[in-house]
Amino acid sequence: MALKAVSPWLTTSSWAARRHFHSSLPVIFAVELRALAYILSLGREHIGQVGALATLNANYIKECLKADYELPVKGLCQHEFVFNG
Asked: Exposure string (b/e) for 46-59, b if CB count within 10 Å is 16 or more?
């Protein structure tokens, strides 16, 4: 009965998925370490400005590139935008 319960976890595809997950752990760790370093470099006094600066940067880049690409959604963006083309 116990073997029946765990048999879906013993398929080849699930083993491959777990192997892929474990092989990508160093990459995940590096990404998280970089994010932590960024947060720590901002410090307690500047961490609250991250959202506002991301919005400002996204709108600046959007305005610089809108003459070269089709912009499907007009107006201000929050922190990201999409171009067609």
From this structure: eeeeeeeeeeeebb
Distance of alpha carbon 59 from alpha carbon 71, whole angstroms: 12
Residue 78 is predicted with a pLDDT of: 87
SS3 74: coil
> Of how many residues is the chain composed?
85
Give ∠ CA 27-22-4 in degrees, rounded to 5: 155
Under 8 Å between Cβ of 80 and 55: no
Tens-digit pLDDT profile for residues 1-56? 566 665 665 565 665 666 666 678 888 899 999 999 999 999 999 999 999 999 99
- DSSP letters along 3-72, please? HHHHGGGGSHHHHHHHHHHHHTHHHHHHHHHHHHHHHHHHHHHHGGGHHHHHHHHHHHHHHHHTTTSB-S
